[in-house]
TrEMBL record, chain A:
Keyword Nucleus: no
Keywords: Oxidoreductase
CDD domains: TPP_OGFOR
Domain Thiamine pyrophosphate enzyme TPP-binding: 71-218
Domain of life: Bacteria
Protein name in UniProt: 2-oxoacid:ferredoxin oxidoreductase subunit beta
Keyword flag Oxidoreductase: yes
Family matches, as InterPro entries: 2-oxoacid:Fd_oxidoreductase (IPR051457), THDP-binding (IPR029061), TPP_enzyme_TPP-bd (IPR011766)
Length: 364, 649
């Protein structure tokens, strides 16, 4: 796989303009000399290792890779990558990265953000980046809590959460980041889990190859302020029933294995409501089970899949790539307008611009 | 009809030329009178096309070679209720056969397209001035709407003026009767009829306007020809009707201008061109991140037209994203700009602080308007000076450059770019609504005269560690400028991380060390304090060794009215010195010494004394603040009174 994506990277639109590395890279090429300062046991370590381990696969010149982040625990990420990086201000990373990516198509630009950074203070920038489809890869570390400010509830915290700022329980309903991204016209939306390195890497691989904005929600454990938030998805026994692993072209099946080698639960469309529901295929058969189509131009089914998860128990949480469709890429279009302006008007002539066409002359 | 110029006070910068003759291009036997200068105000409903009419008259006047200065004045509402006082839109133009500095205090001619326009503007019109009214609109309802119980055209209330009652609407419709237009469509051309009439009165060249109309309405040739016909009908009306017995000539201002090729230019256009020129001179792509806001949006519109110069314009989701994208582009090696007005600056403040910390070049263009909050979106003010100076958390010094006239916005933009690129810092360019929309002749610079703004990106290691290893330190500074290296992504070996957290001197790594923070705060301040700016020049013409004892000092767009007032005061035999600040941070090195030279220092500002506050704090000078926050520029006559009082105090 390593060689495959590296070889392919010149054909992948998202990466075609990014110069390639001269030599084979390894994980350590992507480690900076800075000491990692997350809390021991933080899920961020796993994500950092997965990203550093995955980067050599792309085979890109590392000087052409940039990580931009906002504020929060996860936003320290760029300091630990031996690439170019910017640790900016709270919520604004998508806007800053948009300026960088739209002016420098030879760069591979990654945004690292958290649930507070991306969905609270920076919510506006996130939805607009998604709608524009700028060539950015956004890694949204969702731990459902504010870590850096020491444990207030976040916009993805479950209702009723007891925190320092909500001693009687939080009142506001949470965002589902995948649903939000789909509603914001995102062309690529995926979800993965910090502890599942293989799955995380496969999602990163698909995100990197996607032309346009890719949003990857990473469920990430904060062992200090919200430990075990995703335990239902990680505990082997529970996970079987809780996690719906989506793979393009495969029937949407999960749960304990049925005799046919797939899970015993399946996702079908409810003919009465048009919504999706989970059935036991051993009782109801496999006939109606949906085959996952990440490339479906309509986001409707992906949205319905994103709604299957129970906000409290996390049961029926889909992970994997929910949506991956081709849509015109903002920075490509911007660049094409510059080219066509030159074709139509010729390269700009400053003297002609300044003179305009309504002048008079004063002679001494 | 005896005089176009209303009072002696108006006349102090030059005398009326009394030469009279007949004919010329005026009508048969009509008198032609020569004037040295005229102030015309076109006023009408927001939908009457007064801004366009003013623009066209300005273009005609510019191409004729007069010196000129303009003041558009319009409501924030796109179409305020028709015929009401809040819906009145006006355009004032001052043109002359000599060097002038302001759009003029009071109009010699008012063109009032309806009763609201007359009522809203009459107080500014001196007695004896000419008023051309569209009588068709002086019917019961439009008059009642603005509180005229009786017609001012008939009740004698305008007896002190030279009123020309002209049925502009009827005449326009009549002139266009063969064009097959509806009455409503035909009526729309009445502004061109008025323009034609005024063009005749002042002997303006007409080819430009006809060409303009045919280009503007290229897709609707019928409408183009109707407008041309209305324009010509207005001209012919002036030539034939007996009511207009005199036409006027204002000779080209040949003495006022150095040799060169000129065009008319507004502040926002000059500023846009300055940005494009800076990008060309720096050999860096221009990147504008912006969110629409009055009165800055025209810069976004203008730059969006110049993609063939490699200009990228990004209309962001909000003000914060506008500057964020610009800062991202700056990190990538672009000449990055964000354009806004005061409320937008407030939103951008945190990102400006980040730019201070990242030490990346970034231009923040603030076209100031009346505040606080939404304030007066279409009116002018200078009340963002302290916001630009101090409006951030922490010690976050930002250089400030302010243009003084519309055309000067071009040079100021280049200067701001020079500072940003040389010192790797965000820079404020403080224009305002008056400069943005006002216009004046501009000597088109030869491209070879423009400054070289090319920069050197970092290309390799800049530091040797104790063990001899060559490394790149993103915060190792240039000894002279204190600027840090600009190492853009894509440069091998210089991978580095920067951020808003305090950085260790040199390495740029995160550092919470107390002594390091103290050092870094002082170093960032020292970098801005050390920016090279030219000494301030003082205009103090008294050569008898005594000099003036009073100095007037301003900044930004008050240059025109202050200078005009200074001329009046000197014309009356008084001594007064004048200086004007382009650089407000850092101040010119000699400023303290200049201020100390004078007994009295007057600081006129369109705010409540922000520059005065800075001067007092910095130089312990007893600056006298003279302020006005009406949303309108100072009037030269009023300033002259203030200066005289101060001199004789």
């Amino acid at each position: 796989m390593t060689e495959t994506i590296s070889e392919r990277s010149s054909q992948i639109e998202a990466l075609s303009l990014v110069p390639k590395a001269d030599a084979k890279q390894s994980m350590k090429d992507f480690k900076s000399d800075q000491e990692v300062r997350w809390c021991p046991g933080c899920g961020d370590y796993a994500v950092l290792a997965a990203v550093q381990g995955f980067m050599p696969e792309l085979g890109l010149a590392k000087e052409n890779i940039v990580f931009v982040s906002g504020i929060g625990c996860s936003s320290r990420f760029p300091y630990y990558m031996n690439t170019y990086g910017m640790h900016s201000i709270h919520g604004r990373a998508p806007a800053i990265a948009t300026g960088l990516a739209s002016s420098r198509r030879d760069l591979s630009v990654w945004v690292v953000t958290g649930d507070g950074d991306a969905l609270s203070i920076g919510g506006n920038h996130l939805i607009h980046a998604l709608r524009r489809n700028v060539n950015l890869k956004i890694l949204l570390f969702n731990n459902r809590i504010y870590g850096l400010t020491k444990g207030q509830y976040s916009p993805t915290s479950e209702v009723g959460k007891i925190t320092k700022s909500t001693p009687m329980g939080s009142l506001d309903a949470p965002f589902n980041p995948v649903s939000l991204a789909l509603g914001a016209e995102a062309s690529f939306v995926a979800r993965t889990v910090d502890s599942d390195r293989k799955h995380l890497t496969s999602v990163l691989r698909q995100a990197a190859a996607h032309p346009g904005t890719a949003l990857v929600e990473i469920y990430q454990n904060c062992n200090i302020f919200n430990d075990g938030a995703f335990e239902a998805l990680k505990d082997k026994e529970q996970a079987q029933e809780a996690v719906i692993r989506l793979e393009h072209g495969q029937p949407i099946r999960f749960g304990a294995l049925a005799p046919d080698g797939f899970g015993s639960k399946g996702v079908v469309r409810d003919p009465a409501t048009g919504d999706l529901k989970v059935i036991d295929v051993r009782e109801e058969g496999t006939g109606g089970v949906l085959v996952h189509d990440a490339h479906n131009p309509s986001p409707t089914t992906a949205f319905a899949l994103s709604r299957l998860a129970d906000a409290d128990t996390l049961h029926h949480t889909p992970i994997g790539v929910l949506r991956d469709v081709d849509r015109p890429v903002y920075d490509t279009l911007m660049s094409e307008q510059l080219d066509s302006a030159i074709e139509q008007k010729g390269k700009g002539d400053l003297a002609a611009l300044l003179a305009g066409n309504d002048t008079w002359t004063v002679v001494g | 009809m005896t005089s176009q110029v209303s009072s002696r006070a108006e006349q102090t910068d030059a005398a009326l030329v009394g030469e009279q003759r007949t004919s010329g291009n005026g009508g048969e036997g009509k008198e032609v009178r020569r004037l040295d200068r005229v102030i015309i105000r076109f006023a009408g409903d927001s939908g009457d096309g007064m801004q366009l009419t003013g623009d066209r008259f300005t273009s005609e006047t510019a191409s004729f070679g007069n010196d000129l200065s303009t003041l558009p004045n319009f409501p924030a509402e796109i179409r305020a209720p028709a015929g009401t006082l809040p819906g009145v839109s006006s355009f004032q133009l001052h043109f002359a056969d000599h060097d002038i500095l302001t759009p003029g205090d009071a109009p010699n001619v008012l063109v009032a397209m309806n009763p609201a326009a007359l009522k809203a503007n009459l107080a500014d019109v001196p007695r004896g001035a000419e008023i051309i009214v569209n009588t068709d609109e002086f019917t019961k309802r439009p008059m009642a709407k603005v509180g005229y119980a009786t017609s001012p055209l008939e009740d004698g209330s305008l007896a002190a003026y030279n009123v020309h009652p002209v049925p502009l609407t009827t005449l326009t419709v009549e002139a266009l009767k063969d064009f097959g237009l509806s009455r409503k469509e035909a009526e729309r051309s009445k502004n061109m009829f008025a323009l034609g009439l005024l063009s005749w009165m002042y002997h303006r060249p007409t080819e430009g306007t006809e060409k303009f109309l045919r280009t503007k309405f290229a897709k609707k040739p019928d409408i183009a020809e109707a407008n041309v016909a209305a324009f010509r009908a207005g001209w012919n009306f002036g030539e034939t009707t007996e009511d207009f017995a005199v036409s006027y000539e204002v000779a080209p201002a040949t003495q006022a201008f150095p040799t060169g090729t000129y065009r008319n230019i507004s502040g926002n256009l000059a500023l846009s061109y300055g940005l494009v020129a800076a990008s060309q001179q720096a050999d860096l792509p221009l990147y504008l991140g912006s969110y629409p806001i009055t009165p800055a949006s025209d810069i976004l519109h203008e730059l969006s037209k110049h993609k063939n110069f490699g200009v990228r314009t990004f209309q962001a989701e909000d003000e914060i994203a506008g500057i964020g994208a610009a800062l991202g582009a700056a990190f990538g090696g672009a000449l990055a700009v964000t354009t806004t007005s005061g409320p937008g600056v407030a939103l951008k403040s945190e990102t400006i602080g980040l730019a201070v910390s990242l030490e990346l070049p970034l231009l923040i263009v603030d076209i100031q308007r009346g505040g606080p909050s939404t304030g007066l979106p279409t009116k002018t003010e200078q009340a963002d000076l302290l916001q630009a100076m101090y409006g951030r958390n922490g010690e976050a010094p930002v250089p400030i450059v302010a243009p003084k006239t519309p055309a000067d916005c071009f040079d100021a933009a280049l200067d701001a770019a020079r500072i940003a690129l040389t010192y790797r810092t965000p820079v404020f360019l403080l224009s305002d609504g008056y400069l943005a929309n006002g216009s004046e002749p501009w000597r088109i610079p030869d491209v070879v005269e423009l400054p070289d703004l090319r920069v050197q990106f970092a290309s390799g290691p800049n530091h040797q560690l104790a063990d001899g290893t060559e490394v790149f330190w993103p915060y190792k500074r240039d000894e002279q400028t204190l600027a840090r290296p600009w190492a853009v992504p894509g440069t091998p070996g210089l991978e580095h991380r920067i951020g808003g957290i305090e950085k260790q001197d040199g390495t740029g790594n995160i550092s919470y060390d107390p002594a390091n923070h103290d050092f870094m705060v002082r170093t960032r301040q020292a970098k801005v304090d050390g920016i090279e700016v030219p000494d301030i020049e003082v205009d103090d013409p008294a050569t008898d060794g005594l000099g003036a004892n009073t100095l007037v000092i301003g900044w930004g767009s008050t240059y025109g009215p202050i200078t005009a007032a200074v001329r009046r005061v000197r014309g009356a035999g008084e001594r007064i010195a004048q200086a004007h600040l382009r650089h407000l941070n850092p101040f010119p090195r000699n400023l303290g010494e200049v201020l100390a030279r004078y007994d009295k220092v007057i600081v006129p500002e369109m705010n409540l004394g922000q520059l005065a506050t800075l001067l007092r704090a910095r130089y312990l000078v007893d600056a006298r603040s003279h302020t006005q926050v009406s949303g309108m520029p100072f009037k030269a006559e009023q300033l002259a009174e203030v200066f005289k009082e101060a001199i004789n105090d």
